[in-house]
Amino acid sequence: MTFDAETVVAWAELPTAELRVNAQRLAAARLPAQHPLWTVIRERPALAAKLRSAFSGLLVTIKGSRDEHMQRLWITAARNAIDAKTAPEQKPVAAAPKTEQPVAAAPARPAPQPEVRHVPVQQPQFGPPPPATPSRSAAPIPQVVFQEP
User: What is the DSSP string of 64-129?
Assistant: First the structure.
């Protein structure tokens, strides 16, 4: 479905149910964020607020549906497109007039080469682990003798 600016501007007067249907179609259209339609919506704060509200309502109604994740991505992209700030146009910077002055150039040196060190890699050992050595000295345990009463 194609959308034109006049139709989208007229959405500000629609009831909530119809606006929600149109908002779902707009999100499903997956228009790029630089599309002129988003600029038209951003220029009208009341329409942008109503569409944000409709998108929030859609997120609630799609919960649990089989297409929830796909529609959530579309709706999130549409909300981000509405909230996106338009990039200010960059004015070209006027170049300052160049005055030629001799500049003493340093002799070119080759870039220092990083020192490469060979580090031996330990190969993993397979098989039984080496016997564990006790961390403290084992003191002899006194023998306990049980006697009859």
Answer: TSTTHHHHHHHHHHHHHHHHPPPPPPPPPPPPPPP-----PPPPP-PPPPPPP---PPPPPP-SSP
Report the C-alpha gap between 80 and 102 in whole angstroms.
Answer: 53
Q: Sorting pLDDT into bands at 50, 70 and 90, what band is 130?
A: low
Q: State residue 105 phi and psi, 5-degree precision.
A: -95, 135
Write the DSSP assignment of 36-65 as a string of letters.
HHHHHHHH-HHHHHHHHHHHHHHHHHTTTS
Cα 32 to Cα 145: distance, rounded to the nearest angstrom: 87
Q: What's this model's pTM, rounded to 2 decimal places?
A: 0.55
> Cβ atoms within 10 A of the Cβ of 135, count?
5
Treating both helix axes as pointing N-terminal to C-terminal, what angle do 36-43 and 45-61 enclose, rounded to 10 degrees? 110
Mean pLDDT of 20-26: 92
Mean local confidence (pLDDT), 32-41: 90
